[in-house]
Amino acid sequence: MTALLHVFAVLMLAAHALTLCLARPPRRVWRGWGTAAAGAVAAVLPLAALARRQSAQLAWMRHPTPGRLWAAAEDFAGPSALVLAVSLLLIVVAVARSRWRTLGAVALPLVCVPPVLLFALALYRPCFHERYLLFALAGAPLLAAAGADRLADAVTGRLVGTVKDRLVGAVTDRHRALVAAAGVLAVGGAFVWQLPLHQWERQPLSRQDDLAALAATLGRLTRPGEPVLYDPPKERRIAIAYPRPLAGLRDIALKTPGPASGTLYGIDVGPAELLRRLDGARSAWLIAADEPEAHPAKAATLTGPFRLAYALCLPGVRLERYVRVGPEGPGGVTDDRWRPWSPISAP
Questions:
Q1: How far lies 278's CA from each of 50, 149, 251, in Å?
Q2: CA-CA distance, 116 to 63, in Å (whole number)?
Q3: What is the pTM of this model?
């Protein structure tokens, strides 16, 4: 069921196989696991075949570098350098003192094997992203918790070992209470320490693609019936996620909608057809991705018969208004809102 919800989660089977190798179970356990694993793979194969036909949705990805593996480790065990260092120290303690029939045999392969396999697959077909590996995240905190447990046992054993046979029971209970209290303080302190990070993640500014705010802003600035162009087509996600503010605009570049074309964002017309559709339009809006690697093809198409009259920079998006050059151009526009050039940076 997990792999049907997220096809890359099938990589967990490789981690489970390594766990069995480390645990050295009887042959009957291998047979049972192999039967279950084969059934899971068979159930996921149709979904994998369908997903492969839609692999163009990942065309924006690039071949990963080894640094991406370290970035995944930082995301899983971080986020700050000190948290990462403490987590890695606890993980080392857990692994060094682990018996391979216990937690380490499950958690260590889980956190290591799927990222490495996905990285290897991404060298052939780019598909590596940290969010695709969230199913493996549980291995890191489990190992860190195991390391903390090992340290607590070591401290408790040393303290109790210095006491003679008299009052051993009472002293043991007291030290266990002290260790438990220290653990509660450590967890509470870690939470308070990272509370600002949790708060930041829940603020609107922590997301560069706050589609609700973008749709509301675009809805206020545009008027029903005006032509709008999305460049690249991915920017239609704003209208798809929050259609009401942009419902009155004419998506003039759209050739085939997403559902009919089997794509997420639809297929656009070519430059010649776009200019034909814009014939007679006095102005047009352009919603473009504000990314360094983005090449706004539609802006280049508009540059000939239109000129840029207004620009607004929003988080992750540029909103631009083009007006026609010539007899029907800026001189005929009576709307005082649109100045010849107004670069504005929205907060």
A1: 37, 68, 11
A2: 14
A3: 0.63
